[in-house]
Amino acid sequence: MNARVLVVDDDAALSEMIGIVLQSENFEASFCADGAKAMEAFRSVEPDLVLLDLMLPGMDGIEICRRIRAESGVPIVMLTAKSDTTDVVKGLEAGADDYIAKPFKPTELVARIRARLRHGETQGTEQLLIADLAIDVPGHRVTRDGETINLTPLEFDLIVALARKPWQVFSREVLLEQVWGYRHQADTRLVNVHVQRLRAKVEKDPENPEVVVTVRGVGYRAGTPVR
Amino acid sequence: MTDAARGAHPPGDAPTPGRRDDWFARVRHHAERWRRVLRVRVRLALRVWRGSLRLRVASTTVAVGVIALALLGLLLSAQIRDGLFDDRRDQVLSDAATRAELAQGQFDASTVSSAQEVQQLATDMVSGLQETSVGSSGVFLMRSPGSPAVILDPSTNDSLRPLISPELRERVQTEDFQAWQSVGIPRSDGGLTPGIAVGSAVTLPLAGDYELYLIYSLGAEQQNLDLLQGVLAVGAVSLVVLLLAMAWYLTRQVLDPVEQAARTAGRLADGHLTERMQVRGDDELALLGRSFNEMAASLQDQIERMANLSHMQQRFVSDVSHELRTPLTTVRMASEVLYQARGDFTPGQARSAELLQAQLDRFEELLADLLEISRFDAGAATLEAEGVDVREVVRRVVDLTAPLAQNRGSEVVLDLPAIAATADIDQRRVERVLRNLIVNAIEHGEGEPIDVRVGVNARAVAVVVRDHGIGMTAPEAEHVFDRFWRADPARARTLGGTGLGLAISLEDARLHGGDLEAWGSPGEGAAFRLTLPRRAGLDIAAKPIPLREVRSEPELEPPEDSSAANPAALPDLHPEPSTSHEEAKG
What is an example of a GO molecular function annotated in this UniProt entry (chain B) (predicted)? Predict the structure, then answer.
């Protein structure tokens, strides 16, 4: 089955063009031009991924992002014309997984979408331990004392990447490549913001992280398993 | 050793020949020290003097006042003294003349027959004169030379006898009438009271020619004079004090507003644009205050308008950016779709798709550069600095541009120092500058080798990119950083470029507090030097490596020594326009 992509953008020409490109890459595209109707469209389409313009009439992209996150972990990729502003960070903090700066090439767009849809291809019964958490990789489940912690697919990828090599310190660049699929230099703010979001969910005390430990000047590593 | 020099020192300290040098040295040392101390004091005083208009005005006023009052006082007291003296002298002289006449009359009328009687007569006479004349300190009868020594010279006060000088006596003896002289009468406290000694010739019966001397005291006059001088002095001192107070007050009146203006101007310069002077009254100083405040208001107005404009400009650029980027994305994607499908097109259509694609790249680059430059213009560019080894950045950029260099047949020769060239830099910006410089060098290098050299000293890191291609003239080198400037309008730009690359590079360098300089010579090639301070705000005293150099000096100085590198060894980029012009000709 083809992956469904919901495009939320008020620019009709751009939406149509994105649709053409997505269809040529065998995605199923749906469109929504009004921010106020975005949630409605999201619920009816049940997309596998959302492409979201940050500047929208009705409701702005950041608010939509927050609302989608409140009810789903579906990957969200923002489209933005202002990559160097705080809007991007706000969007990421609201739960967006990645962003693409305008103007972008079709190949770039497709690569970003594929990277976000790629996960879930593990086989076997891989089980990982990180601090006091247990990770069931094929089951996409993270539990603490038998209690499930809800993570988005991206957050899950992030914690699995760290937990698979607990001896290794991951630089932000390496994480960008392994989790986000960037081959070249990318925005390290992506890592910073998502580590914060992940910590807020999995750490007992986000001020003193034990699961995702910061190694100053280098990056992050997994906390030592307790058991 | 002279006596004078020896006398200047206590005997115990007198130098023996062996200690002489030592002693001289000590004297010289002390003299030197005092001179130094004195010089410092004088300099300090001079600085205070120059630094305070109020002090200068007050002290000048006081000095002029004191001099004027002193002159006036001296003149006045001299006038008064002379007047008092002249009055008293006239009085004394007429008194003395009367008495001499009286005495002569009595002598003439007397009928003495013996020396004893003459002696008695003379003694009675002097004591009588002494008693009757006012202010007389002593009366003397002295025998003139040639008269027989019949009697002893009578006097009422023998201690004053030495006051009668031989000169006076001589004048009395030769003159008919009267002679006088100023004398100082010793007082019991050791001082002298001014007095006048008056002498007249008298003839005594039997004893012959004698001189009669009367000494008058001017004590009362002196007292009056002292009192007067005292009053004058008190008056003068109070006048000076008054003058000082006046000068102080007046300078305060004038200088306080000036000082306030200076303070306010300083506050304005510090950015407190609402700062104003207090204006009181309607005089010239109030006018100063009002004009000043008007200036400040207009300044504030201007600055606020400019800030507003800059803010609007930023907003505008940001909005244009967004508005342009959305349609550009659509065009870009459409072009891509066409480009991918160009195999199915006629040759003309396929080529059109290619051109569209290529020109869109250029358009995008241009838009990005324009936005970048407008960010610099708006002052919105920020530095994300971190400590990085510049050698690593250079290596990375050279690796990235290697395919292009290979394509052009240019070899990039790296010359890196053995020690780390760490500096606090914004990697993205420095990489951009270096990529720009190296790509430029490859583009204009005509297949010749390109030298990339890194130098470091205590304060700065420098990278020189030198090509040996077509080069450029000195006037061209001055313009390479201009926006949209092209060395040769007719020359095709094979590697594209927006015409903003070097302008952005220069802004990037300046944002770091560094510099970017260019040198070129037709046929010899061109060189660009990027200099970056190792820490933010560090002043680059000397550039670590020269801009233009023959590649024959592989040694690089360690950072300690290179800070002392002779700046004269570096070729100046813009010493004077004329020099660089000659350089270009040669």
Answer: kinase activity
Question: Where do runs of H (alpha helix) occur along A27-152?
Answer: 38-45, 61-71, 86-93, 106-117
Decide if B205 is inside a domain: yes
Instruction: Examine the fold and report which residue of B224, B259, B294 is the final residue of a domain before the chain moves on.
Output: B224
CATH code at B475?
A: 3.30.565.10
Strand pairing category for A141-144 and B412-415: unpaired
DSSP string, B507-543: HHHHHTT-EEEEEEETTTEEEEEEEEESSTT----S-
Last-in-domain residue among B361, B381, B401? B381
Q: Do residues A112 and A70 both lie within one domain?
A: yes
Within-domain flag for A51: yes
The model carries a pTM of: 0.55
B373-427 pLDDT per residue, tens: 887 877 778 888 888 899 999 999 999 899 989 998 888 999 999 888 889 999 8
Q: Are residues B108 and B144 in the same domain?
A: yes
Nearest residue to A102 (alpha-carbon basis) of B376, B364, B338, B496? B364
- CB-nearest partner of A102 from B318, B329, B334: B329
Q: Helix axis angle, A12-24 relative to B284-340, nearest 10°?
A: 30
Name the residue among B583, B570, B329 with its Cα closest to residue B478: B583
Tell me the residue range of the domain where A176 lies.
127-222
Boundary residue ending a domain (A84, A117, A150)? A117
Could you give the number of structural domains in chain A?
2
Which of A9, A11, A14 to mutate to test binding with chain B, by most B CBs within 10 Å of its CB?
Answer: A14
| Beta carbons within 8 Å of B148's beta carbon, 6+ residues apart | B207, B208
Classify residue A46: in a domain, yes or no.
yes
Q: What are phi and psi of B514, to 5 degrees?
A: -105, -155
User: CA of A24: which chain B residue's CA is closest?
Assistant: B337
Interchain CB contact of A218 with B (< 8 Å) = no
- Name the DSSP letter for residue B342: G
Picking from B322, B327, B364, the nearest residue to A13 by CB comes out as: B327
Same domain, yes or no: A133 and A212: yes
- ipTM tops 0.85: no
**Residue B169: how many other CB atoms lie within 10 Å:** 18
User: A55, B322: Cβ pair inside 8 Å?
Assistant: yes
Based on its alpha-carbon atoms, the radius of gyration of chain A, rounded to whole angstroms, reads 18
